[in-house]
Amino acid sequence: AQKVTQAQTEISVVEKEDVTLDCVYETRDTTYYLFWYKQPPSGELVFLIRRNSFDEQNEISGRYSWNFQKSTSSFNFTITASQVVDSAVYFCAPVSSGSARQLTFGSGTQLTVLP
Amino acid sequence: DSGVTQTPKHLITATGQRVTLRCSPRSGDLSVYWYQQSLDQGLQFLIQYYNGEERAKGNILERFSAQQFPDLHSELNLSSLELGDSALYFCASSGRDSSRETQYFGPGTRLLVL
Questions:
Q1: Is A108 a residue whose pLDDT tops 80?
Q2: Distance CA B110, CA B96 (A)
Q3: 3-state secondary structure chain A
């Protein structure tokens, strides 16, 4: 079974600040995928990024970047120069690479970006 | 727009009733997943279908059932509804391209049981 801990329940920043969302996961799988999803106030779940467990290269995509460290089971997500539209709940979720591919969601981090 | 559609968007019903939620996956996706999001339980996986066959089960109650049809759309049936079944129900699909493992979510069906 997999488990996800998002210790930050709520974060509030002022527009243009950088913000990092923490995620620590537990899994018995040797290979797996890690995801971040965003849920804005409108309620839909929006896919943001995916990472493979066998590739620890950290990447940047626009204002998003992520830091994956397998040794500490952490998959942190950073938004650079935050905007009001980034206000949402952010979920980290690992998924097994086996035949059962269900996502295991953390409790989410509510990010509020103030103008 | 993820390409996954769900109907209805909102549903209000009474305890003891039965409802059916419908999901159409992205074109070509073979896997459909159902998730429930409630205030006390958070986002939980219910069940997965792949090309018409049940692939995995999560915390799905016996009062709930699902199926995936030959055209790949899926339905989630909730019966003998209780107040605690009030939640946002999401459908997700995956499997169209090389990013097979990425699940794309529909807008959800918000169920209110009175």
A1: yes
A2: 27
A3: CCEEECCCCEEEEECCCCEEECCEEECCCCCEEEEEEEECCCCCCEEEEEEECCCCCCEEECCEEEEEEHHHCEEEEEECCCCHHHCEEEEEEEEECCCCCCECCCCCEEEEEEC
Residue A15 has pLDDT above 70, yes or no: yes
What pLDDT, in 10s, does the model give residues A42-101? 999 999 988 888 776 667 778 999 888 888 999 999 999 999 999 999 999 988 766 667
Cα A93 from Cα B23, distance rounded (Å): 22
Out of A35, A100, A107, whose CB is closest to B56? A100
Measured in whole angstroms, the distance separating CA A10 from the mean position of its chain's CA atoms is 14
Contact B101 A105 (CB under 8 A): no
- Which residue in A50, A91, A99 is closest to B43 by CB distance? A91
Q: What is the pLDDT of residue B100?
A: 62
Q: Give the A:B interface size as CB pairs under 8 Å.
A: 62
Residue, of B88 and B59, whose pLDDT is higher: B88
- Cα gap B21→B6, rounded to integer Å: 7
